[in-house]
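Today's session is about reading a structure prediction critically. Students often jump straight to the picture, but the first step is always the sequence itself: look for stretches that repeat, for charged clusters, for runs of hydrophobic residues. Only then move on to the predicted structure, which in these notes is written as discrete structure tokens rather than atom positions. Here is the chain we will use throughout the hour.
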Amino acid sequence: MASDAASATAAAPPEPLVRIAYGRGITTLTLDSPYNRNALSARLVAELYAALAAAAASEDTRAVLLTHTGTTFCAGADLTEATAPATSTDTDPATAGPLGLARLLRTLVELPKPVVARVTGHVRAGGLGLLGACDISVAGPGATFAFTEARLGLAPAVISMPLLPRLDARAAARYYLTGERFDAAEAARIGLVTLAADEVDAGLAPVLDGLRKGSPQGLAESKRLVTAELLRVFDRDTDALAARSARLFGSAEAREGMTAFLGRRAPAWQR
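Below is the predicted structure for this chain, in token form.
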């Protein structure tokens, strides 16, 4: 009996990294990968794709709420995967790497349901791309933001597609280049998030109530109007920016930056 129980435990599927809940017209997708700060691992990205597809097909869903467990909304790329040797069992490239991230961001932008982000923790690097791809985002006082790519020998290439059309140009230049951390009020000022709220759920309440009153057609067509320019950017730049990102991730300088970060030491170029 003990061996049977052990076999059953060993065969149990892993806990999901994206949890799905539904209530009053809103499908809530919760990033739940605390061991790596909700980093965009290949598995999390694949699960998010599946959850978004299900929400898009749901007749009862008026909007998607994207949120998180723990103190980090999303830390960006999973650097342990990025620095690991490639193997023949790697995840489907359609959902992995820079091109996989670009496709995920485009999926959020062109989803026929509005996507709202609820942020109560830290957002770094590629996680900021998720915010850029959401239609509305509300951040609380515990939220912090930083474009850390330049400190790792990388650049915010793919995530620029949904972000640069929304961000204040001077602020984008500053934060892209310096990697400085900034708060929710500054994120709202520069266009990264829609609203900085002292109490996130109170800030979200009128937004979600408004979305519940929309018709499926009315919401989908209204979203198409406000995302048209973003989609033109994706059409124009996806291949080039995904290739640039892949080149940077494969460079010696980026490998030094990522391994230094994972090893909690300063990279060779830091002064």
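Discussion point for the tutorial: The first helix runs from residue 2 to 11.
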